[in-house]
Amino acid sequence: AGLIEIGAEARALLAGADHFHVMGTSLFSPEVIEVARIGIETVKARGGTVSFDPNIRKEMLDLPGLRDALHFVLSKTDVFLPSGPELFIFARATDEESAVRELLDRGISAVVIKKGAQGAVHYDKTGRTVSPGFVVEEIDPTGAGDCFAAAFVSFWLRGAAPEKALRIANGCGALAVTRKGPMEGIASLAAVEAYLATARTG
Questions:
Q1: Which single residue of 98, 103, 144, 166 has CA 20 to 30 Å from 109?
Q2: CA nearest 145: which of 168, 177, 122, 121?
Q3: How far apart (Å, rounded) are the C-alpha atoms in residues 68 and 130?
Q4: In this predicted model, what pLDDT tens digit does every residue of 70-98 receive, in sequence order?
């Protein structure tokens, strides 16, 4: 038995879930780590998938149990979504392609490196896909990475090609930075597609 007894509502959600997403910053206490572990193991036991956005600062790595939790999540991850240098927290290599190769060799299906205004790069066993960012007036970057990850994972789960998933995700991230606040920049798919019809790449 785990340390935590999850509630009926959470159990009902997990019973119908085939994907579980983890944000590294949410793993701030042993209780939350245990809830994430239960969720991951429940979904994976049914053949589901896991995405992981570490969104972690190096200074947080000394929080009790966090390093072990991050490595547990990574060991179950199908889609890994680090931002720039976060990649190197999880790999021995010091260059991007070698670090990604290490992670793919551990069984991760896709590594998507978020690079903000410079766009994103997708890696899997078949190769590398680069997608440029879009030119926008940045007001507040808070939440842009979350919007990117939600869009990418949604399209990945639908079986979209990396090029399409990255383009939509970059559009979501670009629109997110044009509004102040972490939730205000969330756009509908129709709004993102309309934006992409006229968007300029950087």
A1: 144
A2: 177
A3: 31
A4: 999 999 999 999 998 899 989 999 999 99
